[in-house]
Amino acid sequence: MIRVAVVGAQGRMGSSVVEAVKAADDMVLSASVGSTGELSDIRTDSTDVAVEFTVPSASLGNVLTLIGQGVDLVVGTTGWTQEKLDQVRQALATAPRKDQAVCIAPNFAISAVLADYFASKAAEYFTSAEVIELHHPDKVDAPSGTAIHTAQAIGQARRRARLASMPDGTQGEAASRGQLIDGVPVHAVRLQGLNAHEEILLGNTGEQLTIRADSFDRSSFMPGVLLAVRTIAAGGHEGLTVGLDQFLDL
């Protein structure tokens, strides 16, 4: 049995993870704490993997604390910058366990992970690309971590293909084009009734490819979370892994 602790257990995602762990035949819930709860009891003698779903302001501190306690981690909190990721890598380099593993994923929905992967493969064949992400109005960050990750993957693919900057004749003080991430426009929609949705638009003269992923309920994230927990618990992924796609053998 994989002993799993959940940090952020009272939150929307955390509570769903608690129920998913309880329902899994190969897992047992070893601890459940709030987003800023006491982490001292989450140690390797009682926990194999901790799942962290809190808020961006608390997540880095939680992750660094748990690394210091030798616990492997699966992290679903968004808001991770390159600077924060570098702090995690540095902490792992001096961690008490040299085989310690941390997975930080912007999205655990298999559909969203595949959409991101497909977009990175298609990007080099299209002149233009834009990302639209749509979420419920209670989401604390905009754009979403998933959309940022997608835009960065598209930007990397375009650089590898030596593509020119995207054509964009927008002018004027009132022009609204979203946030530019790695050269890719990203637009965030916050609308009551939505859950988590992403649309990637890729265009050439006379054609368009649309890749869309829709998560209608938080249950859509649970298979990916449990996959990450099982993969981390099985070993062989030392250090920091960013993105669930690393565990899908794509």
Automatic annotation (TrEMBL):
<feature type="binding site">
    <location>
        <begin position="8"/>
        <end position="13"/>
    </location>
    <ligand>
        <name>NAD(+)</name>
    </ligand>
</feature>
<dbReference type="InterPro" id="IPR023940">
    <property type="entry name" value="DHDPR_bac"/>
</dbReference>
<keyword id="KW-0521">NADP</keyword>
<dbReference type="GO" id="GO:0016726">
    <property type="term" value="F:oxidoreductase activity, acting on CH or CH2 groups, NAD or NADP as acceptor"/>
</dbReference>
<feature type="binding site">
    <location>
        <position position="136"/>
    </location>
    <ligand>
        <name>(S)-2,3,4,5-tetrahydrodipicolinate</name>
    </ligand>
</feature>
<feature type="binding site">
    <location>
        <begin position="145"/>
        <end position="146"/>
    </location>
    <ligand>
        <name>(S)-2,3,4,5-tetrahydrodipicolinate</name>
    </ligand>
</feature>
<keyword id="KW-0520">NAD</keyword>
<feature type="domain" description="Dihydrodipicolinate reductase C-terminal">
    <location>
        <begin position="114"/>
        <end position="247"/>
    </location>
</feature>
<comment type="similarity">
    <text>Belongs to the DapB family.</text>
</comment>
<feature type="active site" description="Proton donor">
    <location>
        <position position="139"/>
    </location>
</feature>
<dbReference type="GO" id="GO:0005829">
    <property type="term" value="C:cytosol"/>
</dbReference>
<dbReference type="Pfam" id="PF05173">
    <property type="entry name" value="DapB_C"/>
</dbReference>
<comment type="subunit">
    <text>Homotetramer.</text>
</comment>
<feature type="binding site">
    <location>
        <begin position="105"/>
        <end position="108"/>
    </location>
    <ligand>
        <name>NAD(+)</name>
    </ligand>
</feature>
<dbReference type="GO" id="GO:0051287">
    <property type="term" value="F:NAD binding"/>
</dbReference>
<dbReference type="InterPro" id="IPR000846">
    <property type="entry name" value="DapB_N"/>
</dbReference>
<comment type="pathway">
    <text>Amino-acid biosynthesis; L-lysine biosynthesis via DAP pathway; (S)-tetrahydrodipicolinate from L-aspartate: step 4/4.</text>
</comment>
<dbReference type="InterPro" id="IPR022663">
    <property type="entry name" value="DapB_C"/>
</dbReference>
<protein>
    <recommendedName>
        <fullName>4-hydroxy-tetrahydrodipicolinate reductase</fullName>
        <ecNumber>1.17.1.8</ecNumber>
    </recommendedName>
</protein>
<dbReference type="GO" id="GO:0008839">
    <property type="term" value="F:4-hydroxy-tetrahydrodipicolinate reductase"/>
</dbReference>
<keyword id="KW-0220">Diaminopimelate biosynthesis</keyword>
<dbReference type="GO" id="GO:0009089">
    <property type="term" value="P:lysine biosynthetic process via diaminopimelate"/>
</dbReference>
<comment type="function">
    <text>Catalyzes the conversion of 4-hydroxy-tetrahydrodipicolinate (HTPA) to tetrahydrodipicolinate.</text>
</comment>
<feature type="active site" description="Proton donor/acceptor">
    <location>
        <position position="135"/>
    </location>
</feature>
<feature type="binding site">
    <location>
        <begin position="76"/>
        <end position="78"/>
    </location>
    <ligand>
        <name>NAD(+)</name>
    </ligand>
</feature>
<keyword id="KW-0560">Oxidoreductase</keyword>
<dbReference type="InterPro" id="IPR022664">
    <property type="entry name" value="DapB_N_CS"/>
</dbReference>
<feature type="binding site">
    <location>
        <position position="41"/>
    </location>
    <ligand>
        <name>NAD(+)</name>
    </ligand>
</feature>
<feature type="domain" description="Dihydrodipicolinate reductase N-terminal">
    <location>
        <begin position="2"/>
        <end position="108"/>
    </location>
</feature>
<dbReference type="Pfam" id="PF01113">
    <property type="entry name" value="DapB_N"/>
</dbReference>
<feature type="binding site">
    <location>
        <position position="43"/>
    </location>
    <ligand>
        <name>NADP(+)</name>
    </ligand>
</feature>
<keyword id="KW-0963">Cytoplasm</keyword>
<keyword id="KW-0028">Amino-acid biosynthesis</keyword>
<dbReference type="GO" id="GO:0019877">
    <property type="term" value="P:diaminopimelate biosynthetic process"/>
</dbReference>
<dbReference type="GO" id="GO:0050661">
    <property type="term" value="F:NADP binding"/>
</dbReference>
<keyword id="KW-0457">Lysine biosynthesis</keyword>
<dbReference type="InterPro" id="IPR036291">
    <property type="entry name" value="NAD(P)-bd_dom_sf"/>
</dbReference>
